[in-house]
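[RESIDUES AND BACKBONE]
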Amino acid sequence: MEINITVEAEQYIRQNGQSATVMLGTMTGCCGGAAPLPQIHLVLPNDLSDYEQNKVKDITIFIDKRVDTNKQIHITLAKLLWLKKLSVELV
């Protein structure tokens, strides 16, 4: 599994605790369908046994074990005026 983090995202994670968690949430539709949706949060997982711990430089990234290990993980920082938010994409 390859993890790519932009410089801006690295700095943001360092300023907010040195770690982030990538998890699979669920996106539901109006017709009863559901699809997994990757999410990233600046919190430690409640149950570490469900996550794989990865070090990228001095940052710890916890990856949900349900994430496909054949995919690359891209972590970026989205900005709108003074608001900042991490974004994750599985490629």
Q: What stands out?
A: Helices lie at 7-15. Residues 7-15 form the longest helix (9 residues).
